[in-house]
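User: Last request for today: this protein with beta-D-fucofuranose, please.
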Amino acid sequence: MKRKTFLRSGLAALSMVAVAALGACSSGGDGGSAGSGVTISLGFSQVGAESGWRAANTKSIQESLTAENGFKLSFSDAQQKQENQIQALRSYIAQGVDVLAFSPVVETGWDAVLQEAKNAGIPVILTDRAVDTTDDSLYASFIGSDFVEEGRRAGAWVKENFDGEKLSIVELQGTTGSAPALDRQEGFAEAIEGSDAKIIDSQTGDFTRAGGKKVMEGFLNSHDDIDLVFAHNDDMGLGAIEAIQAAGKKPGDDIKIVTIDAVKDGMQALADGKINYIVECNPMLGEDLAEIAKKVVAGEPVEKRIVVEDAAFTQEQAAEALPNRQY
Ligand code: GYE
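Assistant: Here's the final one, the structure of the complex with beta-D-fucofuranose:
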């Protein structure tokens, strides 16, 4: 099953320039078989281990960038802190890896370290989340979902299913300043605009189950008219379920829940009727990353933006899809 669409960009040529400077950096090979017989050393800085999505994403990366596949992977977990990510990237640059890849915890503040990588002739591949930079030549490619579209799809479902009804929504935001939190908020707000659905409160739960539960408890204390929760990921939605049940209400019924990710626990809650709708965000980015890294090192042009395709599920569709879910 093909899960991705390539959006060709005229900027691919820029990546070629970055790669041309690479030359001597390619490691001499220590037994791998990247096609060319050369092992590619890749330093990957992961956001953290905040959610089921992240666990599936880490697994996909570690299972794709293997020695058999021609990679020497150095992997580090930044525990959701930008300074840890910058430190990891700097240490990979000092080690002289062939390629850097990372999922930036927040959108801004990357120009300096990306410039250092560029000066060292090390190409950078962004996975999952985008950076906000005015200089696109600082990275070779960005592989990930369209988060604005995910938010739009969640909002469109709400608008379609509660058309004409007054609806009070609370929003559980992802990590403040992260691309998925900013984009999903934007897409959702855009989709419900002009309807009778209104966001009455919105706070970050940092993409964690504990964060979602805590923020939802606060919402339930300060509002007695909540009709629907829009959670930026499944884990926060699952935390909200616990808070709603503890308040003596029925999640999915008294208070509707819409989330994004479609990881196993979320899909189970959807099939069980505790969540009402989930927009998928596909975490299986490892294979695409391996393919792009090989091309970059070989000096081939790469797509500047690779958009991963996502599905969406109702309760019935979740029950049907669950037995075959990989993550
Ligand atoms: O939705 C959330 C995770 O960046 C798309 O990060 C990712 C998000 C995902 O913590 O569960």
